[in-house]
Amino acid sequence: MSMDFFSWETLKTISGVSTATGLITQFIKDFIPIPTQVTAYLVALILLISVEVYNQNYRNILLCFINGFIASSIASNTVALVNRITP
Question: What is the DSSP letter of 29?
């Protein structure tokens, strides 16, 4: 059994791409002068397209633009919830 934290199989799921989007966005948001939600969408879009290219499934690339909204929304709302809960 592999002990990978993230794999291509994990990033194919909405929870995997949302988690990765949230983590990456939190690390880079202070270095990029655009709104955090836009940054999260771009990160999610890059991750989703990367997964499709890795799997050589080019038919679903257009869906990545819609799924990017969903993944970035989940990631942004999760981060906002954590910020409200923690002191």
Answer: T
